[in-house]
Amino acid sequence: MSVEVEQIGEGRSINSIELLASAARTATTVGTALANVERFTSGTFTLKVTAAATEVDDTLDVFIQRLLADGVTWDTFARFHQVLGNGGGKVYAMDWSAGADNNVSLLADQEVSTLGSVVLSAEAVKDVPIGAQIRAVGIQVDAGGSADSFTYSVTANLRY
Predict the structure, then answer these.
(1) Which sign, positive or negative, has the C-alpha torsion 34, 40, 41, 46?
(2) Tell me, what DSSP letter sits at residue 131?
(3) Which of 78, 96, 151, 160 is deepest in the core (most CB within 10 A)?
(4) DSSP 3-state of 108
(5) Is residue 154 within 8 Å of 27, Cβ to Cβ?
């Protein structure tokens, strides 16, 4: 299942498209695919964590994936900074822009605190065409086995 992005005028943007709606989650979550995105040339992905699990060994990894041309295989092209269970609420933003050859150039994700300070992450990203569909995937590890949850959302602000 996918959600299609409506056609919009050139130079416009679509803001705050939910790839994963805010919810408390205790297990791996795969978001609904967002279709019709190949025309976008830049944008920002945002991971907003409003509540984290309680133990440092609990982790959340969030990825942005694109659907390959075979129409079956999902490829991870961006990964947010890993969120630890004892870290509390955080907001991460990851910018990307397409070059003249339509390859996506992703910047490292940034942790944005309420004080405005920014900490760059060393997470790896790939320069690839964004493709026709994208989605977000959240993978959680509950080290203590007590069903601790993370409450988070993932949005995309896309421009062309």
Answers:
(1) negative
(2) -
(3) 78
(4) coil
(5) no
Among 3-12, 66-75, 88-97, 147-156, which is the least confidently predicted range? 3-12
* Helices and strands per DSSP (H, E), number in the chain: 0, 14
Rounded-to-integer distance, Cα 62 and Cα 79, Å: 6
CA dist 41 and 32 (Å) reads 21
Asked if 156 and 20 touch (Cβ cutoff 8 Å), the reply is no
Q: Read off the tokens for 51.
A: 């509540």
Mean pLDDT of the chain: 75
CATH of domain 26-159: 2.60.120
Residue 131 gets the label, from left (phi > 0), alpha (psi -120 to 50) or beta, of left
Give CA 3 to chain center in angstroms. Answer: 16
Tokens representing 31?
Answer: 């978001």
C-alpha 30, offset from chain centre: 11
Per-residue pLDDT for 105 more than 80?
no
* Global pTM exceeds 0.70: yes
- Give dist(CA 11, CA 13) in Å, integer: 7
> Any idea where the domains of the chain sit in the sequence?
26-159
